[in-house]
UniProtKB/TrEMBL annotation:
Signal sequence range: none
PROSITE patterns: ABC_TM1
Transmembrane segments: 9-33, 67-89, 96-122, 128-147, 173-194, 200-218, 230-249
The family this protein is said to belong to: Belongs to the binding-protein-dependent transport system permease family. CysTW subfamily.
Bilayer topology term: Multi-pass membrane protein
Source species: Zhongshania borealis
Descriptive protein name: ABC transporter permease
Subcellular location, record wording: Cell membrane
UniProt cross-references to InterPro entries, sorted A to Z: Bact_Polyamine_Transport, MetI-like, MetI-like_sf
Keywords recorded for this protein, A-Z: Cell membrane, Membrane, Transmembrane, Transmembrane helix, Transport
Record-annotated ABC transmembrane type-1 domain positions: 63-248
Length: 258
């Protein structure tokens, strides 16, 4: 009889890896409620660091910029990524997947430097527009993957039946393909939003003066000191990200497995 239970060594290794990944996050969350400016020891429970965030204009401005940039970037990447996913699934061009999915495999710092040089050559001012264009460029591939995965699991006979019954290509897409694709499209949109609102490296190279995002603002705060206020804003950003990832896994678990 085959024993499918994992060995103790493998189980211990997995536990240690997950502890290494999540214990620092738990420490950040816990010390965001610490009633002390120092992260050296626990003094007592307090909400005052979150209350300070509400009245911190720099944090609120950066959070607003991040939200607007993430929404616009996700919307543009969703439209373009859906079209790219359809083209990758139905097209026969071997170069198309490499072109669409290339930014996913490239290092963020390489993408950031390349986009910075391109914006300078094209005389595009660095600011919210340049950040949005940069975020769209690396989010398209993730949306395309989600849509392509959904297309691979679709029953193509439904579309063929609609065409046989007299539906035009647009009608078959709007009434058959699009509703079936919607879980993959929504999953791709949520993934693009999460990647955009969390991005630091590419944003660092493409942001101009006065266009700070929340990750950039957190970085500027950390350079001075890791205060409980930094822990509080990091906790809120972590909560938003985990919520979106959970929602993404509920909508389209197949996308995350592939």
């Amino acid at each position: 009889m085959v024993n499918n239970r994992p060995s103790k060594a493998l189980l211990c290794t997995g536990v240690l890896v997950y502890l290494f990944l999540y214990v620092p996050l738990i420490v950040v969350v816990v010390f965001s409620f610490n009633d002390s400016k120092l992260n050296a020891e626990w003094v007592g429970f307090t909400w005052k660091w979150y209350e300070k965030l509400i009245h911190n204009e720099d944090i609120l401005r950066a959070a607003g910029n991040s939200l607007i940039i993430a929404i616009v970037s996700a919307a543009m990447a969703t439209v373009l990524g859906t079209l790219a996913g359809l083209a990758m699934y139905r097209g026969r061009q071997k170069w198309l997947p490499a072109l669409v999915l290339g930014p996913i495999a490239m290092p963020d710092i390489l993408i950031g430097v390349s986009l910075l040089l391109m914006f300078i050559l094209l005389n595009i001012s660095l600011g919210s527009v340049s950040i949005i264009l940069a975020h769209v460029s690396f989010c398209i591939g993730f949306v395309a993957l989600a849509v392509q995965s959904r297309l691979a699991g679709m029953d193509q006979s439904l579309i063929e039946a609609a065409r046989d019954l007299g539906a035009s290509p647009w009608q078959s897409f709007r009434l058959i393909s699009l509703p079936l694709l919607m879980p993959g499209i929504i999953a791709g949109a949520l993934m693009a939003f999460t990647l955009s609102i969390d991005d630091f490296v590419i944003t660092f190279f493409t942001a101009g003066v006065g266009s700070s995002t929340l990750p950039l603002e957190i970085y500027s705060m950390v350079k001075i000191a890791v205060t409980p206020e930094v822990n509080a804003v990091s906790t809120l950003l972590m909560l938003v990200t985990l919520t979106l990832i959970t929602l993404l896994s509920k909508i389209s678990p197949a996308v995350l497995r592939q």
